[in-house]
Amino acid sequence: MVQLVPKNSNLAKLLRKTSLLIWDKVPMQNKSCFEAVDRTLQDIRSNDTLFGGLPVILGGDFAQIPPVIKNGNRSSIVEASIKQSYIWSKVKMLHLKQNMRVRGTSAQDIHFKKWLYLISYNTFMQNPKIPLPEYISQTHSLEELISRVYPQRNPTEAIGNPSLLYKSAILTFKNDTVDLLNHKVFELMPGTSTTLISADKADYSEEENANNEVYRFSTEYLQTLNPGNFPPSKLTLKIGCIVMLLRNLNPQKGLCNGTRLIVKEIGQYVLKVAVLNDNNSNVEQIELIPRIELTTLEVDYPFVLVRKQFPVKLSFAMTINKSQGQSLSNVGIGLRISPFTHGQLYVAFSRSTNLQGIHVLRGSNQYNQITPIENIIYPELLL
Questions:
Q1: Long-range contacts made by residues 15-20, C-beta under 8 angstroms, separation at least 24?
Q2: Percent of the chain with pLDDT over 90
């Protein structure tokens, strides 16, 4: 077995001194992660009890999106849950029931919180076609949705001002739709575009390198590839646009995978950005983002793709999966297509801290009627 943390490393020393481990967003992570940490802690702490005897607090909402399994079906997704791990039988459960995100007290707020519960934990709402509450803002127009989330009355002020942006986003189910939405909003921005080209190469295995007849992929072909969680080969930015960080660069400074940033300056080798966060300070947190090498897993292609690029992508829109953990006061939700896995509808609507800040893009039938939307719940994943 590969030793994940060498016993003489600084991390191992820190974990031996640790008195409590807090682990959030548990339902979305694969059970193999927990089991690997359990084995590692037992090894470095020389203790064969669960997590090496270290107390662990696990947190999360099991109505939210489960682990992502590539090409997986319902059974494989359920099997990946921590509920299917040997660890689960040793977990003591405590239930938190108060909604701390939507805190309004109006009749609509109270009804909305009850509706959120119905689409999350009420298994009678499993896979039905359900209508949305009438008080939720809905539109058929993409342009109207964008104008509600990113007001266009003064584009320079509305899109270039972090105070108007850090709590705004458009959410949808699939990456290709996210890319289209990001491009649409980006085109509405004022200013000059700058395109940054990556340096791409393919690394082959020793066996393939020994075979002189192996097909070598051209740089032009490599630049057409767009693996998940990778920046595009041609990264086009403007001053003031929102981007999302795709790698953990400096967690102590909040520069983690999923952090949203405002581009302040664009250089050939570094981006100057402001971190979008919910701090009340009027002082911007300015950071520098370098170009780094990103690599794919060997299973993705018949080679390892190595791309040197800024680890960011546009983030006016994001997938609903990626939005887990976000709190937004102005959120657009693209519902022209239905959810495809457990918890997506619930996650999308529970991101909002403000009922009046929810705006939904809907599809319609041949009679121009707003159609109900499917809600997917896997009861076996719920507590």
A1: 15/41, 15/44, 15/45, 15/52, 15/54, 16/44, 16/45, 18/54, 19/54, 19/55, 20/54, 20/55, 20/56, 20/57
A2: 60
Contacts of 158 (CB under 8 A, 6+ apart): 150, 151, 152, 164
Structure tokens given for 28: 């979305």
Which among 60, 65, 31, 29 is positioned nearest to 376, based on CA atoms?
65
Name the nearest CA neighbour of 364 among 114, 139, 97, 102: 139
Which structural domain, as residue segments, surrounds residue 250?
A: 190-316
Examine the domain organization and report whether 196 and 299 are in the same domain. yes
In this predicted structure, what is the pLDDT of residue 158?
47
Boundary-marking domain end, from 316, 351, 372? 316
Which residue from 313, 177, 193, 199 is spatially nearest to 257, judged by alpha carbons? 313
Residue 374 has pLDDT above 90, yes or no: no
| 186 — pLDDT class (breaks 50, 70, 90) | very high
Q: Are residues 244 and 305 in the same domain?
A: yes
Q: How many domains does the chain have?
A: 3
Task: Select, from the ranges 79-93, 180-194, 246-260, 296-310, the one with the highest average predicted confidence (pLDDT).
Answer: 79-93
Mention every residue, 6+ apart, whose C-beta is less than 8 A from residue 214: 204, 208
Distance CA 311, CA 245 (A): 6
For residue 267, the model assigns a pLDDT of 96
Which of these three, 90, 123, 153, is where a domain ends?
A: 90
Which region holds residue 25: left if phi is over 0, alpha if psi is between -120 and 50, else beta? Answer: left
Average model confidence (pLDDT) across the chain: 87
